[in-house]
Input
Amino acid sequence: MTEPLLHVRQLYCERDDRILIRELAFALGEGEILQIEGPNGSGKTTLIRILCGLSDDFEGELYWRGQPRHRHDDRFRQEHLYFGHLTGIKTSLSPRENLRWILQLKGVAQQGEELDAAIEAALAAVGLASYEDVTVYALSAGQKRRVALARLQIEPAALWVLDEPFTAIDRKGVAELEALVQQHAARGGSVILTTHHALDLPGLRRLQLGLGGGKWQIQ
Amino acid sequence: MADPVKRLSTPEVPSLWQGFTALLRRDLLIAFRQRSDLVNPLFFFIMVIALFPLGIGPEKSTLEKIAPGVIWIAALLSTLLSVDSLFRQDFEDGALELALLSPQPLFVLVLGKVVAHWLVSALPLILVSPILSVMLFMDAETVKVTLYSLLLGTPVLSMISAIGAALTVGLRKGGVLIAIIALPLYVPVLIFGTGAVQAAAMGMAWSGQLAVMATFLVLALAFAPFAVAAGLRISTSG
Output
């Protein structure tokens, strides 16, 4: 059996004296998709922030490729992609400029024209073909969201951590995004996402949070 | 999202220079798109200095005496004015989270941001300071030393205020708190900055004060980015 990408053990987390998650344990292997479900305030985003390393306010152990994550933080950072409620897209820059700095921050090997060409292809793939040089300020909420989603097209990462990726996306976009998630899983990548959409993807597991007292359930 | 696009690749170790320039270039671009960031500190600086002759009278002897202090305090206040927005926008639109999760070391990214901030908010002040110095009856030699002292001192101010900005970025109203955190730390820079200018005005040697300021600059460049990075992690965790 191959090593799971992400392994969570005995995760415990509380906020404001409320136990959100107690003794959470799961392993996410290559090609697996995990959907985190639960009512508002049940700790979905909190869990996402813990899993991707934005929050240290928890107890428990996280392993990345079989190694404690805190000791292999650099590797984990390079190999995962976080897409949150706040997308980090700068409204006074164009989609092209936004993707350029995001990808450079990720440390991609491609530079200059090669990077530009890749960004153009990614923007075309999310339906923003003629909007590369318009400032994001002038785009609609859904288009702005698509700029950020273009990262999923080209950014290299084994694990995608997506927090509500379907917000403000139209029906066609949702279908395309689902297909993209499926492609990623088929290539051997894994995905953790929160959404209230009913997803119908092969190999999907559901993690139900908010069952009271920090209880949870994986289906 | 029809046909899959060719994916980019990452090298084993990302290039630090790439991370530094990515944020430097981005922030400069944003500053040139939103001109107010560029113009506000400059106008504040000019207005504060222009108010002094109006407030205490245009006599050459008085203005000459207070000129170094006036210019330095105006530079210090306008740095403080502009620094609140240093990390706030990034915090509010999520760009800070991307920086925190980047495989690049955070202090390199912080350094890129602070350098961009200095180029946008402090360099224009330094460039107009000779004109304002002449308005306050400084002689040529003193104007030159003012310029040197600002060039050495304002990056230190930017670094120090970045620490305050990083610690307060998670709070809704951080403005006053930044001043309380940063102002005491400004004091050594202010003392040596005005000291150098006053020494030059009296025709004495001023290289010692500038050497001390250069030391501050080296220390700030070497250590402040780590403090800022730690501050950002504290402000965003939880």
